[in-house]
Amino acid sequence: MTTRKLQRIIESVPAADGAGVKLRRSLGRANDLRVDPFLMLDEFSSENPDDYVAGFPAHPHRGFETVTYLLDGHMLHEDHLGNRGDLKSGGVQWMTAGRGIIHSEMPQQERGRMRGFQLWINLPAKQKMKPAGYRDIPASEIPVIDLPGGGRAKVIAGTLNGTAGPVQGGSTEPLYWDIELKAEESFATTIPQSYSVFAYPFEGSLEIGERTLKTHDAGVLGSGERIELRAGGDGARLLLLAARPLREPVVQYGPFVMNTREEIEQAIRDYQSGELTRAAAERAIQ
Ligand code: CO
User: Is residue 18 a contact partner of residue 236, using CB atoms and an 8 Å limit?
Assistant: First the structure.
């Protein structure tokens, strides 16, 4: 059985999005820095309300999924379909933008720590125009398991060591695990060979084979069946993400991710004319 090597490191850099929310972006900060089907990974972490309080006021999406995982804080999600979700510490919101959604994501706290991630996962061409939908997953629905090599994992999507997370299947069958290891503890498992895999240590560092992966850098693993990670001297907490790649052309314009320029131009026209919202709202009434 071959073990996946650390093949490529995508460093995160400070960025701002929404109404000036300060964050760190690794995947997606340039077009060639994606890990098919993962388009973008943002980490936000601040104790200073000025960095996050303005939030993400109403904005559109089309053609992919957004997954928000809140470690600390409180965020309110509202969309034009009338969905309203309260995202609290440890919870996940899994949103399928499909053909179109206009939503806002606004912090509901005025002080304290706000920490979490937003991940964008691409949809295959044939599902990009499916109706929008979303799912709120409170922390209580996310299993926490002890790992055989020490440490613990929260299983958000997919199955780890026989424990199934609340999100199963989907077009790219993603695995989304939050893993915590003490100093020098190891984590090993098998993941289908066809999957893209990356690790993102948001605390501490990792040793993968002969290489070190620093805090806040995304480490893309090469081909193989087995993955093996070891926490550095300060321990580590990391996201482990894997999914079936789509191998389709990606054309992105801000919050729209399609397969061709023409589809992007259509998305912009639909947004400007109100069609993006109207079409989706009509379907919701049916
Ligand atoms: Co959004």
Answer: no
Fold of the CATH domain 6-243: Jelly Rolls (2.60.120)
Residue 3 alpha carbon to ligand 1 centre in Å? 36
Angle at 86 between CA 256 and CA 52, to 5 degrees: 65
Distance 238 CA to ligand 1 centre (A): 23
What is the domain partition of the chain in residue ranges? 6-243
d(CA 207, ligand 1 centre) in Å: 33
Cα of 16 from ligand 1 centre, angstroms: 14
CA of 6 to the centre of ligand 1 (A): 30
Q: What is the dihedral of CA 267, 269, 272, 278, to 10 degrees?
A: -70
Q: How far apart are the C-alpha atoms of 135 and 94, rounded to whole Å?
A: 5
Q: Half-sphere exposure of residue 263, counting CA atoms within 13 Å on the CB side? A: 18
Distance in Å, CA 185 to ligand 1 centroid: 36
Cα–Cα nearest to 279, from 105, 98, 158 = 98
Give me ligand 1 centre to Cα 172, in Å: 20
Please, what are the averages of pLDDT over each run of 10 residues along the chain (286 residues)?
96 93 95 97 92 92 97 93 91 94 89 94 97 93 96 98 96 97 97 97 97 98 96 97 98 97 96 80 51
Classify 58 as helix, strand or coil. Answer: strand
Ligand 1 center–CA 28 separation, angstroms:
15
d(CA 174, CA 229): 19
245-278 in b/e burial notation, b at 16+ Cβ within 10 A?
ebeeebbbeebbbbbeeebbebbeebbeeeebbe
Q: Is the backbone of residue 166 left (phi > 0), alpha (psi -120 to 50) or beta? A: alpha
